[in-house]
Design brief:
By secondary structure, this protein is of the alpha/beta class. It is built from 9 helices and 8 strands. Helix 2 packs across helix 3. The model has no long low-confidence stretch (mean pLDDT 95).
């Protein structure tokens, strides 16, 4: 069994049933996705629009030349990187979720694209919980402003996403994740009190935790973990 297949099997056994594994395939070839797919993985994360669309084409060609032309059609793609508004057409037709909505401008653009193309897109609001200023994301107040509004017709806000400070200090990581959990719980309380119309009944996703901290994330309540290097190795 290959490293990819072995790691996928181990993670599926380790993670609780209610935690979704997003295999972050960015910077790795379509053949690596195919290998993880053969091991049972169905949810993949990409962060660059051109790479996502090229990978989808490559997998379709691989399936068409095989004895199973429908293979890979059940992949659930998540976009996890910074998305520019001029690249929406390369991403939104193909993804089940955009996990990395980090500005009101992008949120409005996704909603507008959906209105023009007849699609409702599931999104997560990226909460800036890390100490690094280079990381994207909303502040707590900005997220509360968004979910306190009337919402969007072609965007479904499903929850929050965040990335902890890149450090080996577990206390710092836990504090970062705790901020996301606290805001999520606050929004749910406000929603249940009728004060957050922008967060509907489907607001139920907390996506945090990566290769180096996913076990902490799962212990703290993450519903989604995004793991790349552990599965696929260093970027190629």
């Amino acid at each position: 069994m290959s490293h990819i297949a072995d790691t996928i099997h181990r993670l599926h056994e380790e993670l609780p049933e209610n935690v979704k594994l997003v295999a972050v395939s960015k910077f790795h070839p379509a053949e690596a996705v195919a290998e993880a797919y053969a091991a049972g993985q169905r949810v993949f994360g990409e962060s660059r629009p051109q790479e996502l669309s090229a990978k989808i084409v490559a997998l379709r060609e691989m399936a068409a030349s095989s004895d199973a032309p429908e293979m890979y059609s059940d992949i659930e793609w998540h976009f996890i990187g910074h998305l520019q508004t001029n690249k929406l057409k390369l991403v939104l037709p193909y993804v089940a979720m955009v996990e990395s909505v980090d500005s009101l401008r992008l949120l409005s653009a996704v909603d507008g694209w959906g209105a023009a193309n007849g699609k409702v897109t599931d999104v997560l609001l990226e909460y800036h919980i890390a100490s690094e200023e280079t990381k994207q994301g909303f502040s707590r107040e900005e997220i509360l402003d968004i979910v306190s509004g009337q919402g969007f017709r072609n965007v479904r806000i499903r929850g929050l996403m965040g990335m902890a400070t890149f450090t080996d200090d577990e206390e710092v990581i836990r504090a970062d994740f705790a901020r996301l959990m606290s805001l999520y719980d606050e929004i749910v309380r406000l929603r249940d009190a009728g004060l957050c119309p922008g967060a509907g009944p489907d607001f139920d996703v907390r996506s945090f935790g990566m290769t180096h901290d996913y076990r902490i994330a799962v212990a703290m309540g993450a519903d989604v973990v995004r793991i790349g290097t552990l599965i696929f190795g260093e970027r190629v």
